[in-house]
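Practice problem 4.
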């Protein structure tokens, strides 16, 4: 069972009876969600009611403890526009530091798509990233480069802006943050030398990877020849990196795999639930890899700024892939993050809850 929890004092108990006759207690909380007001509260509340049962976890024998539980943080789509966003983002950094996670991942879009893509605006967020006491890993969003051609964004060449991001954020074999961790970059071990932003690492027997997949149809722009070529090359590289990540996780007997991208790979599905342009390779790599891996897989993405925790992926026969869970992080104007507790001994592996900028009560670090 994938756990959905929160640190509130107002609890409700929901007992669910599965087809196997098991009774599971899920403690749900609403009070911290309602602090967000009527606009965001329902978005979090509905998603937080989801309980996911992994059938294979019911028959998995207990694992001897070889790694202690740990916490990671995911965030994205912030800060966005106004000064207040940066003030809130600074507060979120302090909140994350108080939690003391093993590492934090920003899944892209640290500016609005309509704000200028100047060198200063694209590089200033590095100072905030380096204020994190632990490691920070970043994967680009569309607002940082594909949207920079807009007049409101300064009319920049998107490929020039992408080159700037690569030079500034993806140098060397380690992450950002005050306590950087070593990363394996796709550019170092494959023929895809250009893609320094695609990385992987492990902790506690669990694998993690970032893949450069962005919103707005992954920049699958049909009207621009340069954009078409860029998309084709990156789409092949990133989807193969995801597929290779599953092979790496299986070969090294990882207990689970977490994949971080920016774009919602289900963006643009029509009424027949077909995958929109720009994401077909990504979705194929995720779904095929998850089925073969047959252990917990968590996809973390941003783009639409709405908190989601569900299992929307299916195989070729329309059957739900029950070991592949999707988490979409909160985004501006709600400058929140998501806390993910990982217990390598627990077959469910992941315990997920939104993380508000200011702690409502003391929470011990792992």
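Answer key:
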């Amino acid at each position: 069972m994938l756990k959905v929890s929160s640190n509130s004092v107002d609890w409700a108990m929901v007992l669910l009876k599965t087809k196997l006759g098991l009774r599971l207690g899920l403690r749900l909380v609403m009070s911290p969600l309602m602090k967000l007001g009527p606009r965001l509260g329902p978005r979090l509340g509905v998603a937080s009611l989801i309980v996911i049962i992994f059938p294979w976890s019911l028959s998995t024998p207990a694992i001897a403890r070889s790694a202690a539980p740990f916490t990671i943080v995911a965030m994205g789509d912030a800060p966005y526009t106004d000064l207040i966003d940066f003030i809130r983002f600074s507060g979120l950094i302090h909140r994350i530091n108080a939690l003391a996670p093993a590492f934090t991942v920003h899944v892209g879009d640290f500016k609005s798509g309509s704000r200028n893509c100047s060198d200063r605006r694209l590089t200033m967020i590095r100072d905030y990233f380096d204020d994190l006491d632990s490691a920070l890993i970043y994967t680009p969003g569309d607002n940082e480069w594909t949207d920079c051609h807009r007049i409101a964004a300064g009319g920049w060449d998107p490929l020039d802006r992408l080159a700037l991001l690569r030079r500034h954020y993806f140098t060397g074999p380690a992450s950002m943050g005050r306590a950087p961790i070593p990363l394996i970059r796709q550019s170092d071990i494959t023929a895809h030398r250009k893609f320094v932003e695609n990385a992987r690492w492990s902790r506690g027997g669990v694998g993690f990877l970032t893949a450069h997949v962005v919103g707005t149809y992954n920049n699958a722009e049909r009207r621009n020849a340069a954009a078409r070529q860029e998309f084709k090359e990156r789409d092949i590289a990133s989807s193969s990196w995801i597929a290779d990540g599953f092979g790496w996780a299986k070969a090294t007997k990882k207990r689970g795999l977490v994949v971080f991208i920016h774009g919602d790979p289900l963006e643009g599905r029509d009424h027949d639930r077909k995958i929109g342009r720009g994401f077909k390779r990504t979705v194929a790599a995720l779904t095929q890899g998850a089925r073969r891996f047959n252990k917990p897989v968590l996809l973390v993405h941003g783009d639409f700024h709405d908190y989601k925790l569900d299992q929307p992926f299916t195989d070729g026969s329309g059957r739900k892939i029950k070991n592949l869970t999707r988490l979409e992080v909160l985004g501006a104007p709600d400058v929140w993050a998501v806390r993910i507790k990982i217990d390598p001994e627990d077959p469910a592996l992941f315990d997920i809850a939104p993380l508000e900028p200011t702690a409502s009560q003391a929470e011990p670090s792992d």
